[in-house]
Design goal:
It is found in: Cytoplasm. The chain is of the alpha+beta class and about 325 residues long. It has eleven helices and 14 strands. A hairpin with a 2-residue loop joins strand 1 (about 5-10) and strand 2.
């Protein structure tokens, strides 16, 4: 039975769990999680899906398997302490739906006057907009963005970018048929050394590899053309992330959660079936487009800062980098 890839997140940390299987029971999962988040199994509140909802075992005994609970490889699990006090006899137990994040948010609107309730609902709607989480422009913005979405909310994950570069290199090394010289645009050994160098950018090849690595569709929203390029769409993944691209820089799109909208509570993985998430991603791109927040790669003029050669467009810059090894460019 192949292992599942589950992204586990809790306050103060995250981890990609690869030791669970479809036949793992909920009780066994809780045992695996306690070693990660130090939350006692009896006090774990596990949220999954979108919007996040508490994982509830219909058998009541924790014997249901992850497959029976609908958990698939590539999903994100959020673990919180339940801190649940026993309900009194006069108070009915809340249902799982009431305990879900959306139910908790809306319950805070009860008892408000009509106009205030409407304003509260509008605030909830605004909170569901996606935001652009800007990652460092350090030539690893693609890897930083994917690391942010899939692993860790740290905005300067140097080690994470290096790990993802290594994963790409290993995939190319292991599959000489798919990743031949014609596909890579250079000899395989040269490409492997090239992508491991933090001075070099990532792009389509790297995204296609990493979407398989994480078993997650990766959609790139272009702020100039408003086009969405879907990597891994044909592989049938159940979840996806949204990268936003302005021609030279990648960032990640996220849905902030909680009153503080702290990045460590961001939702960055969305079901492929959630068309609303796609529309919200396009809304961010449209706003950036209206503000002219993109670079026209076909016509922009730059200069190589190593040898001062003037260049026009992405093709000239790439050709110059390949022939000289120079990768430091500046706009004219």
């Amino acid at each position: 039975m192949p292992a599942l890839t589950l992204r586990c997140q809790w306050k103060g940390g995250s981890h990609v769990l690869t030791t669970a299987e479809a036949t793992t029971t909920l009780t066994e999962l809780r045992g695996l999680l306690v070693s990660l988040c130090s939350i006692h199994p009896d006090n774990q509140k596990i949220l999954s899906g979108y919007p996040p909802k508490e994982l509830v075992d219909p058998s009541g005994g924790g014997a249901s398997t992850l497959a029976e609970l609908g958990i698939k490889s590539g999903e994100t699990l959020r673990i919180e302490p339940s801190n649940a006090a026993p309900a009194s006899a006069s108070q009915p137990q809340p249902t799982p739906q009431q305990n879900a994040k959306t139910g908790q948010a809306l319950s805070g609107l009860s008892g408000l006057p009509g106009s205030s309730a409407k304003a509260g609902l509008e605030a909830q709607s605004r909170a569901r907009k996606l935001v652009r989480r800007v990652v460092p422009a350090d030539n690893s913005c693609l890897f930083n963005s994917i690391w942010y979405a899939m692993i860790d909310r740290q905005l300067q994950p140097v080690q994470g970018a290096n790990e993802l570069r290594q994963a790409v290199a290993e995939a190319v090394r292991a599959d000489p048929i798919t990743f031949d010289e014609a596909t890579l645009g250079m000899a395989r050994d040269k490409y492997i050394a090239w992508i491991l160098d933090r001075e070099h950018w990532g792009g389509g090849i790297e995204i296609s590899i990493l979407c398989k690595h994480f078993a997650t569709e990766m959609d790139v929203v272009d702020t100039q053309t408003l086009r969405i390029d879907r990597f891994g769409e044909a592989d049938g993944y159940s979840n996806r992330i949204f990268l936003i691209f302005d021609g030279i820089h990648y960032d990640i799109l996220a849905e902030p959660c909680g009153p503080s909208e702290s990045p460590d509570r961001d939702i960055t993985v969305f079901p492929v079936s959630d068309q609303g998430a796609e529309q919200r991603a396009l809304a961010v791109a449209k706003e950036a487009n209206q503000k002219r927040q993109f670079t026209n790669l076909a016509g922009f003029t730059i200069r190589c800062l190593a040898c001062q050669t003037p260049l026009v467009g992405q093709r000239e810059a790439q050709a110059h980098a390949m022939s000289t090894g120079h990768t430091n460019f500046g706009e004219v």
